[in-house]
Amino acid sequence: MTSEVENKPVFCTESAKELVKELRASFATGKTKSYEWRLTQLNAMVKMMEEKEPQIVAALHDDLSKPELESSIYEIAMLKNSCRLAVKNMKHWMMPEKAKTSLVTFPSSAEIVSEPLGVVLVISTWNYPFLLSLDPIVGAIAAGNAIVLKPSEIAPATSLLLARLVAEYLDSSCIKVVEGAVPETAALLEQKWDKILYTGNGRVARIVMAAAAKHLTPVVMELGGKCPVIVDSDINLQVATRRIIAGKWGCNNGQACISPDYIITMKDYAQKLIDSFKYELERFYGKNPLESKDLSRIVNSNHFARLSKLLDEDKVSSKIVHGGERDKENLKITPTILLDVPRDSLIMNEEIFGPLLPVFLVDKVEDSFDVINSGTKPLAAYLFTNKKKLKEKFVATVSAGGLVINDTTVHLAEPTLPFGGVGDSGMGAYHGKFSFDAFSHKKAVLYRGFACDAFVRYPPYTRGKLGLLRALFDGSILGIIRALLGWSKA
């Protein structure tokens, strides 16, 4: 293994330049633009998942101790659905869209043509390292691009497997994987791309955007933030509690950008909510969750230390009402609930990205909106209530990448909805046709013949021509008639 690493060629700026040059040459042949090429690649991706699912599940377990159900459903099955949706609808997506024309260009016809951007870069993350690496690539392939994938080095087993599988199943002249860490990413970012999609945190996103700005490269940023959950008192508490647990601890043990980050509820309802959490958590994960095989581990020692710091802050450590047990050797932290945490604590001001769930108290449920809007805009926000007016106010008042009422995280599974952030939680969106659009340029095309050449657009300019042009731009038939008869006021 040591000699294999030593013999591996160094990937530097020159390597990245040659890689992009090679991909641009492949793109220039036009093969990625054909429907047949796109269809072949998407079907090959489905075949890859069907044939290699055990290896994918094993890699995800090596990196995160991810339960098989989460790997099979939330990573592999969801990606299969993305591929199949694209295969089913891609021909329709590729068709030019008819556009209306006005009197200004009469007679004419127009359409919007979707064309591939060219050579794109996808920089992935570690928490869903298979899904979040290949799901954007589904859209990039469907749109007809050549692609470089940079998977996360923090999930090394999945990164290595992705490199092998992509080379084995997909067209290696147009789709490539670059493994590595910061030096390799930096070398890639020095190059000119036609689009970059980055999934990760805000700190690295600023570095990616700064690099992209040098080449005027457009970006899609899928970040995160503190996703709130408002819990009203007029609900089915058992169902609500289970759905919050599924979205928090059932999604990679809280290591997900859309997992609930904190709860807001009323002071007189909090204890009832806490009791329900304790009961359901014990049913799901047993009396000793550290031994549960249904909870992912913390990804590495750095993230374990970061989460421990949040728990150990003086003003927070006394607020733990459930859980809090830690196994440093195995990087495990039990589902942990904290009640009435101070607003100025670290845990209420940093994205948690782990199994800790603080509960913030308000006097009345309507106060929750002020709490949410006082911070940065989250990637997702959740509300549990049966009150129609509260739902309406939530939708009208809270700005987030996506909203879900009476559940958590499930909007991710709907391909008809765009997935993306706003403000600090990201920019741009993908999933379903939104993925196709994210990697396409919408080219405007106007068709005209040689008949009806309007004299009014040419010099010499007169008051009559001015009046007629104004009527044309106003779209007024009566105004045009008046102008032609000389009755309009120029």
UniProtKB/TrEMBL annotation:
Residues 14-445 form the Aldehyde dehydrogenase domain. It holds the Pfam family Aldedh. SUPFAM superfamilies: ALDH-like (SSF53720). One of its GO terms (biological process) is response to abscisic acid. GO terms for cellular component: cytoplasm. Keywords: NAD, Oxidoreductase. InterPro entries: Ald_DH/histidinol_DH, Ald_DH_C, Ald_DH_N, Aldehyde_DH_dom, Aldehyde_DH_NAD(P). The keyword Disulfide bond does not apply. It catalyses: an aldehyde + NAD(+) + H2O = a carboxylate + NADH + 2 H(+). The active site is at residues 222, 257. GO terms for molecular function: aldehyde dehydrogenase (NAD+) activity. Belongs to the aldehyde dehydrogenase family. PANTHER family: ALDEHYDE DEHYDROGENASE, ALDEHYDE DEHYDROGENASE TYPE III, ISOFORM Q. This is Aldehyde dehydrogenase.
